[in-house]
Amino acid sequence: DTAVSQTPKYLVTQMGNDKSIKCEQNLGHDTMYWYKQDSKKFLKIMFSYNNKELIINETVPNRFSPKSPDKAHLNLHINSLELGDSAVYFCASSQLLGTQETQYFGPGTRLLVL
Amino acid sequence: AQSVTQLGSHVSVSEGALVLLRCNYSSSVPPYLFWYVQYPNQGLQLLLKYTTGATLVKGINGFEAEFKKSETSFHLTKPSAHMSDAAEYFCAVSVHGSGNTGKLIFGQGTTLQVKP
After folding, report:
1. How confident is the model at residue B62 (pLDDT cuts 50, 70, 90)?
2. Looking at the partner chain, which of B41, B46, B100 has a beta carbon nearest the beta carbon of A102?
């Protein structure tokens, strides 16, 4: 059983397109996150949700819009894709919202914008 | 504000040798510190974490780390490297202060190469 799953695993698209990445966790966790890992492997948080409520919204372009239909899902929609959006996007979840919590990561979605 | 610095972007050891991956942090409040491992083409997995209590923390796969407040360090060690330890290792600190958001600040990562 996959604890945190993401679809698709790979995404190749043209500049200007709109795409979505889906994330689901079957751990019963309250909190979910989106991270971006760039080509130098630097990881930075983008968003987090707790019980469907937006908690963290880093300085991310408003072309990126997260949506949490329920506690188990956190999707990421990206409008007007740019070359610089090429990266690996990781979804993660933690049982509770808190600084001590372990975060469980999905396998990542590799986005390439041409 | 919290920050993390990992010294050495690339560490190479021989199989059976000691593994030492360095992490220094900056935090104005007692930090919560984490080590995560990323195997090729996979997500991150928690190795160990320090929150409170014992400063020597044992994790999975034989790894351990020691929280040293005086040195602001949280170095990761393993007595004997195995080929399967080859991966990317990330040190992280969780952000306190303005709300309990669970936000993690990651270091830049260290690639561990294990030579036969």
Report:
1. very high
2. B46
